[in-house]
Design goal:
With about 450 residues, the protein is α+β, with helices and mostly antiparallel strands. The protein is about 30% helix and about 25% strand. The longest helix has 20 residues. The model has no long low-confidence stretch (mean pLDDT about 90). One of its GO terms (cellular component) is cytoplasm. It is an enzyme of class 2 (transferase).
């Protein structure tokens, strides 16, 4: 007897595993890789009613699609699962035992710091090839040169090219998971040939943010040059696969190329980041209602993170994006972690970070609430930098003595009171995002009544 699977609830996203042409008028044709959203299960449990990204509806066969799953292995996801870091020659030989021709790993060179060693099992013994790093390129034989380890490994899996054997099977470091496999398994892999990159809309230390087209949909793409930063962005993308809310910038998929390029594809936000939006529009364009709606949009997203035990850690108007229809969405999940973990505070934006997070690295939803208060101040001062005229080194000592910024010009007293509640020095006394949302909704209703 075959087990009948529990039907997927409405709103479930799934990814097409095969092309489906459709056999009747009611069917919704799709191509492999298309993302479909379930509307309801039909009378026949093998068929669902679903809609595609352009809103067209129809029936689809359940066995042609896979449900999208959140990718959970944050810290364990690796672009180079065969890279074992600092291990000795003897440890490498033990790891490649029992000998299986073509089994390989890469380690840091013990004799030549800065270089690497490719260790390959071949005919019952292990060969060690020194990978020399010169002028920003890697090479084993001074003939083939590679940008990074991934390119080098990819080359030798296709062709032995002077090695004792070609690389056949990676010896994966214990506890790590190949990022590419996890993103495919969860239904988040996209195809590079369907992505057309257009122009650069932003630059970061990691690479460029570009606007592109994916199968007819306008998208934003973070293009990450492979190295340690790509590893950090893999963690960011895995967090984004677990989060879905109308006020969070939505991940559409991930492309990991064999040569190590990483592309993170998200929905395109036409009006850019909130801080630039506020500065360029100003008071003449944006009335009190528009400002309150931005405040509420961000609060809704943060309440969702609060419920799911995620902490953002870098909430600021520069990390909020504005859509074509003026909806604010929280982005930049680079530092987002599940609650209760610590991090290096050297890179933290002092003016946005709560005193306890700066002092004791104590991050919590309540430290996000503090940052939210600063973000409200940014909204009502139309994108000014917080703590104007106070030198950066004096901000923390003054704040710890109880200093709070003044009410921005033209900001309603009720909203300023909300900011001050967020800046309580005692984290436990700060409101939750749920309370903040209720207060803002109340303020908005009060405004509507006055009109």
């Amino acid at each position: 007897m075959t087990e009948v699977q529990t039907p997927w609830p409405q709103g479930t996203e799934c990814v097409a595993r095969y092309n489906f042409k459709g056999t009747s008028e009611q069917d919704l044709p799709f191509n492999k890789g298309d993302v479909l959203t379930i509307i309801t299960v039909t009378k026949d449990p093998n068929w669902y009613k679903a809609k595609n990204s352009s809103g067209r509806e129809g029936t689809i066969p359940a066995n042609y699609v896979q449900k999208r799953e959140g990718v959970k292995f944050g810290g364990k996801l690796s672009l180079m699962p065969w890279f074992h870091g600092k291990i000795t020659r003897d440890q490498a030989e033990l790891l490649l035992h029992p000998h299986e021709t073509g089994l390989f790993l890469v380690r840091e060179s013990t004799n030549f710091p800065g270089d690497y060693t490719l260790c390959v099992s071949c005919d019952g013994k292990v060969e060690h090839y020194r990978i020399i790093y010169t002028n920003g390129k890697l090479s084993i034989d001074d003939e083939g040169y590679f940008e990074n380890l991934m390119q080098l490994v990819e080359h030798y899996t296709k062709d032995a090219d002077g090695l004792c054997t070609k690389l056949i099977k990676p010896k994966v470091e214990e506890g790590t998971v190949a990022a590419q496999d996890e993103f495919s398994r969860g239904g988040w892999s996209m195809s590079r040939k369907d992505l057309k990159l257009q122009q650069v809309i932003g630059k970061g230390e990691f690479g460029d943010v570009m606007v592109g087209d994916y199968r007819g949909t306008k998208v934003a793409v973070k293009c990450i040059k492979h190295d340690a930063t790509a590893q950090a962005f893999i963690a960011e993308a895995s967090v984004m696969t677990q989060l879905r809310h109308d006020n969070l910038v939505q991940l559409l998929g991930v492309i990991v190329e064999e040569n190590g390029s990483l592309f993170i594809v998200t929905e395109y936000m036409a009006k850019g980041c909130l801080v630039d939006y506020l500065r360029s529009r100003g008071r003449t364009v944006l009335g009190g209602e528009a400002l309150l709606h931005f405040a509420l949009d961000v609060c809704e997203a943060m309440e969702y993170l609060e419920i799911h035990n995620f902490i953002h850690r870098d909430l600021a108007a520069r990390n909020v994006l504005v859509s074509e229809d003026n909806m604010a969405k929280v982005s930049d999940f680079g530092l987002t972690k599940e609650a209760s973990s610590t991090q290096d505070t050297a890179k933290l934006p002092v003016k946005w970070t709560s005193p306890e997070a700066l002092r004791e690295k104590k991050f919590s939803t309540k430290s996000d609430v503090w940052s939210y208060g600063i973000l409200l101040w940014e909204i009502y001062s139309f994108g000014r930098v917080p703590y104007p005229r106070i030198p950066l080194k004096d901000v923390v000592p003054r704040v710890e003595k109880g200093y709070k910024m003044d009410c921005p010009e033209g900001c309603p007293e009720v909203v300023y009171n909300v900011m001050k509640q967020c800046w309580n020095l005692d984290p436990a006394a700060r409101p939750s995002f749920k309370m903040l949302k209720e207060w803002l909704q109340h303020i908005i209703q009060g405004m509507i009544k006055k009109q």
